[in-house]
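Notes from the pairing session

We agreed to fold both candidates in a single pass and log them together. This is the raw record for the first candidate, unedited. Please don't reformat it; downstream parsing expects exactly this layout.

Candidate A
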Amino acid sequence: AWRALYFSVVASALVALLNYLCQDFTMQILGLKEELKNLMIPLFALSIFLEISRTFNIVMVNSLRASGDAKFPFFSGLVFMMGVSLPVGYVLCFHFNLGILGVWIGFCADEFLRGMVNSYRWKSKKWQGKALV
């Protein structure tokens, strides 16, 4: 799992960084107005962290599922979506007036923390007793 995680995170980081570096080209092709471009610029930067965190989470979840431990990733996903992503996104969006940037920060917090919890589960080896085979 660790080797797959390493290669996946590196590949994801490179693609996200390339996307960030090409943001002007991307927004030009889409024909976005200046107001929308200004809204998108911080999202391109945040997407680097989001994609690395998402990749980290996906690899760890699928490693646990492949080992037969499917319940833990399901319930941790449920808890973190409802307990982190939703409230953090809501508070940052509406109470701190960050709009979509606040929602994306909530996504980042969810993906990163869920990835950390799932990697802790993998490292603890509690999944070994859950094998299907």
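Candidate B (folded immediately after A)
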Amino acid sequence: MSKLNLEETREEKAKGWKFSKVIWLVLYILLFIFILLHFSLSPFGLVFTPLLWNTWLFLLSVVVFCHLWFLFLKNREFRWFHLIWGILSVPLALFIWFAIFFHFSIVKSENSVPINMDYGIEGREVILRKGYLLGEYDEYHDLVNPYIMKTKVNRVRYID
């Protein structure tokens, strides 16, 4: 009887593992589809706005962070110091996310990914503030719809 229960729990664990694997796969595929859509817009001179790109970067960071921790905790038995290390790793993950975010915010506009900390929408234009300290400038892009903008920079305003 106990042997039968043991086999049932193994089958349940296997089903749960497969379900978990499918969820992670779907999340990664959805994030990858966003990249494919971005590159399919590129030949037409269009990109997604920073609103979508900032959200995408944050979701990617959360999914990767959670996936790694779920894999780690799934393969080990629970101990309290694992929970403590998990909590302590959150600031490190946020720092890595912020460093990537900051890098994309200060690099010049040759990159096709408009991840930006400081952006605004005024009328039919998206304003991206680039640079750092003495080299700050604003790039003005045309807005096609609330989620898509043109890659061509209309004008640049240097901030003194």
